[in-house]
Amino acid sequence: LLRLGTLRRRSFTVATASQLFTQLTIFTWFFSIPLFLQDEWGWSPSRSGWVITIAMLAACNSVFVGSYADRRGYRSVLVSGGLCTGAGMVLWLFMLGSKPNWWAMLPGLVVFGWGTGMVGMTSTAAALDGVPAGELAMANATHQTARRLMQTLGTAVAVAVLGNRGAADADRFRLVWAIVACGYVLSAIIAIGYPRRAR
Questions:
Q1: Burial of residue 106 (number of CB atoms within 10 Å: 0-12, 13-18, 19+)
Q2: Taking the alpha carbons of 35, 39, 42, 45 in that order, is the dihedral positive or negative?
């Protein structure tokens, strides 16, 4: 099922391990934010959906970030992207509460989306960089399977933390955001081990 030799490739293993945390926490965030906006702030499902769209529009920076990483190396992008995304959640920890406040939410939302664009699909390019053509399909399948498994676990984490939807309060959502911040910071720490590109 798996060519173990692929795991001996440092770039593949570090990029994939880093993504275990980002994928877990992005889905923890995705699952929890509509519940927060609707249950805590009383916003409509439509309005909540537009909020998530703003973060994903900020993540469109992945187009030029990926180009930069291809030229200059992946490590700095993965590290700074993980820290940036974590910073977005830290802003929410200090700025958001039970009272609706769009302007308090917006900075963290944009910073979070920007960082997500830096580490999202760029990690796949980082994992597959230098993998021989004969191993490319297996390496990609392994990387993507790991991502999907962690996404599922991220949803489970959100459900476990929030518990009964009707009983969820702002403190529980803050705990979710703290988990998301920690996950992205851990991904950045792991990404420090990604090999430097030779000049």
A1: middle
A2: positive
Q: Which two tokens stand for residue 117?
A: 């664009």
Calpha distance 194→40 (Å, rounded): 40
Per the CB < 8 A criterion, the answer to whether 152 and 23 are in contact is: no
SS3 42: coil
- Residue 135 to residue 176: CA distance in whole angstroms: 37
Q: Please tell me the pTM assigned to this model.
A: 0.91
Q: How many residues does the chain have?
A: 199
Distance CA 99, CA 82 (A): 28
- By percentage, how much of the chain surpasses pLDDT 70? 96
Q: Which amino acid is at 71?
A: R
Residue 54, pLDDT above cutoff 60 = yes
Q: In sequence order, what DSSP letters do the residues of 135-196 get, joined into one string? A: GHHHHHHHHHHHHHHHHHHHHHHHHHHH-SGGG--HHHHHHHHHHHHHHHHHHHHHHTTSPP
Q: CA torsion angle for 86, 118, 102, 45 (degrees, to 10)?
A: -100
Q: What are phi and psi of 2, to 5 degrees?
A: -145, 130
